[in-house]
Amino acid sequence: MPQVELIQVPPHHADLKALIARLDEYLFKLYPPEEVFTVDFNDPYVHEIQFIVAYTQGKAVGCGAIKKVDESSVEIKRFFVDESCRNQGVAGLILGELERRARAESFTSMKLETGADQVEAVRFYEKHGFVPIEPYGEYIGCPSSLCYEKRLTDKGDLIQAAEVFVKKELEHEPSGHDWWHIERVRRLAVLLAEREGADPFICELAALLHDIADEKLNESKEAGLDKVRGWLSDQGAAEDVKQKVLSIISTMSFNGGKNPPMDTLEGKVVQDADRLDAIGAIGIARTFVYSGAKGRPIHLPGQDFSGTDYRSSDKSAIYHFYEKLLKLKDLLNTAHAKKLAEERHQFMEQFLVQFYKEWDLTEERK
What we know:
The protein is α+β, with helices and mostly antiparallel strands. The protein has helices at about 15-30, 90-105, 120-125, 155-170, 180-195, 200-210, 220-235, 240-250, 265-275, 280-295, 315-325, 335-360; strands spanning about 5-10, 50-55, 60-70, 75-80, 110-115, 130-135, 145-150. The chain has a 7-stranded mixed sheet, with helices on both faces. The longest helix has 26 residues, at about 335-360. The N and C termini lie far apart (about 70 Å).
């Protein structure tokens, strides 16, 4: 990302007007004049609009503004980034600064209008937590207008945005770390938080995001954490929320039993929820799904894998019961999780007894 400086400028600033002229030139190529919604710089109230210009090495490369709509909401206007600086994080910085200013003035909603032909813009806004709404104000009746909104203060909105994000990222994940795993862990985390007196919001949010950062699904552990960190920043999550969630998901995995114990109640709850979904009938199913996705055989009798790296794909599905699943019951943190684990653990033991009977054909010897 280039070094970027964000500066608030007055409405008639030369750099701002030059960037807006380029934006208008682009928009008038896409839409008829009556479907391009500009800012009237002759309006005496134009000075109430906050304009931001982004600079790199002294060159103006982007702009954006927020305009008050009503007592609770602002509208993003005149958002533009020079082609040479797109997909480099500049747009995200401008949007983040506009959101910071809206929050600082206690607005609870940001709205915007974009065009149906601006596919990249739509993707950008959706990535940053904006959801479609009905056309409002001057955009009502405009055939090309798409309107969006992002709520700024409600914890429920952050949870909802996390659901959308995680579903998009993991809906078709083939190794047992898909959306339905996330949904089960989320429900378990909420249940355990209620029973143990933990913060339900932090538990639910961390449960939703935990596999976005999983090193098995990313180039590295740090790359996964950066993805979560970036998404939380894009959503305008408070610093303490980001720190709590990242602390949980960075240390909750089994990792061959090498990770240190969780140091917060919320961390213990989310870790327990994830581990409960790794045992019992669901755990058995996920083990074979993961093994199939990684090309692992069902069983390799007589082979000793004790010296094999935990992440190695050279082991069997059945060995995974012994290196991890059968250990989890005794590694849980909370009282209610331990209670739920008893039946699930027994089911795995019964499964293995039956598995070996069928593998060795001992049932035929009775």
